[in-house]
Amino acid sequence: MSITSYNPADPADLVVAVEAPGAEAVRAAVGRARAAQAGWLAAGAGARSATLGRVAEAVEAHAEELAALIVREVGKPLAEARGEVARTAAIWRYYAQAPYEPSGAVHETAAGPGLLLTRRRPYGVAGLIAPWNFPLAIPSWKAAPALAVGNTAVLKPAPEATACALRLAELTALASLPEDVFTVLPGGAEEGVALVEAADVVSFTGSTGVGRAVVRAATGRGVPVQAELGGLNAALVLPDADVELAAGHIAAAIAGYAGQKCTATSRVIAVGAAYAPLREALVKALAAVDDSVCGPVVNEAARERMTGAVSSAVEAGASVLVGGGVPERAGWYVEPTLLADVPDQHPLAREEFFGPVAVLHAAADLDEAIALANDTPHSLATSVHTRSLDAALAAADRLDAGMIRVNAPSSGVDFHLPFGGTKGASHGEREQGRAALEFYTVSRTVSVLPGGGL
C-alpha cells in the first residue's frame, strides 16, 4: 500500500509517496524503542533536557523551510504555518525543562522510623497517533513530554501529513536524539491498529469513530490512553458585547485555516438584542476573509462533505447568509459560510464538519444560550463575548466545555496549559502542560524501613 500526500491548493502536486511499512514493521519498531528506553531513561535529566533543547534549536534553524512545507502539504496559510513552527519550537523548549521537575514526594510514616516515597516513572514506549491539521505541533506536544519523562516514542502521522512528520524525525536526529528513541512510521489503519496493540501508553488525536476504537483497544489491554476527538464549539455573544470585535474574533475562528481546527467555532449563539447587529457584522467579516486567512480544505472528499451539508441544510429550510459556494479555481477551496434557520437536528447543528461553515442561532437570554451551547455530544472550546464580568463568570461556571475563552476566539490554545474537552470530545487525561507529564508516567509508592524490617 502506498501512502501519498498531495497539495490541497494544487491537487496535481504530489508532496510525498512512501510505502506503508505494515503491521510487522510497527511491532519491530516498538520492540527497538522498548530496547532503547532503558538507556534513554538512564541517561538522566541533564541529557534528556539538553537533547530536547537541541530539537527546539533545530526547528528554529529550519523555520522557513518547515513553514513552506506545512503550506504545501496541508494548505495552512503562511502566517499560521509560521506560527505553528514557532509554537513547535516553544513546545520542545518548554518540555526540555521537564526532566528537572520533581518526580515524586516524601511522606511521613504512619508510625516509627522509615521513609515513604512516591515516584512517577515512565511506562516504556508511547504510541502516538497524530492528525494532519497541525502536522508539527501536535506530534511535538505528544512526543516531547513523553520523551522528557523517559519514555521512547513511536509516531504514526496522518497520511496527509507524512512529509512534515518525516522531516520532524530528521530534525530530531540532527539534534542527536539517540536512535530508536523517537521513530516516525507513516501508514494507515493497519499501522495504527498495530501501534495501539503494541505500545505501553497511547495518545490519539483524530476522528470520533476511530478514536473510540482506539480507546476500546487500549483499555482492553489495560493500557493508559488519551484521545482527543474534536468538538462542536459555540460562540456566545451577549447584548453588551463589542459586536464588531466579537464578529472579528468569531470570523477568524470559523474561517481561519478553513475551519480545520478542533477548536474552530461552528455554532454562533446571539443573545437577545445582539442578534441583528451581530448577524450584519459577521456577514461582513466573513465576506472579507481571503485565502491568506482561510486557505483550502485538505482534500476533495472534505470539500464534498462541506458543500453537501450546506445544500442539505438549505433544502431543509436554512438560509445562506454569506458564502456557501466553491471558488472557480484549482484546489479544494470552500467559501467561508454562515447559515441561519438550520433545523436543530440537521447534521450541521449536531456534528463537527471540520470546514469554514457555521450556524447562527438566536437565544432569548443567557440561560437559553448556555443550554444551546451545552446541547452537544462533544464540546471542546466555547467563547463568550461580553463586557460584563458577572456574565462571563456565570457562563464559565455553567458551560460544558474543556476550554472557555472570554472575548477571544474559541480557536486559541496555550501549549503550557491542559488541553481537552468534555463529554465525547475527549477520553482520559489532558494533554499539554504538566498534565502531559503525569499522563506519560505511573505513580509508584516506595517504603524504606530501617534494618530491612517490614
Automatic annotation (TrEMBL):
Keyword Secreted in the entry? The reply is no
Q: Which InterPro entries match?
A: Ald_DH/histidinol_DH (IPR016161), Ald_DH_C (IPR016163), Ald_DH_CS_CYS (IPR016160), Ald_DH_CS_GLU (IPR029510), Ald_DH_N (IPR016162), Aldehyde_DH_dom (IPR015590)
Taxonomy, superkingdom: Bacteria
Q: Does the keyword Oxidoreductase apply?
A: yes
**Which PROSITE patterns is this protein grouped with?**
ALDEHYDE_DEHYDR_CYS, ALDEHYDE_DEHYDR_GLU
Q: What Gene Ontology terms describe what this protein does at the molecular function level?
A: oxidoreductase activity, acting on the aldehyde or oxo group of donors, NAD or NADP as acceptor
Similarity comment text for this entry: Belongs to the aldehyde dehydrogenase family.
State what protein this is by name. Putative aldehyde dehydrogenase YcbD
| Species of provenance | Kitasatospora aureofaciens
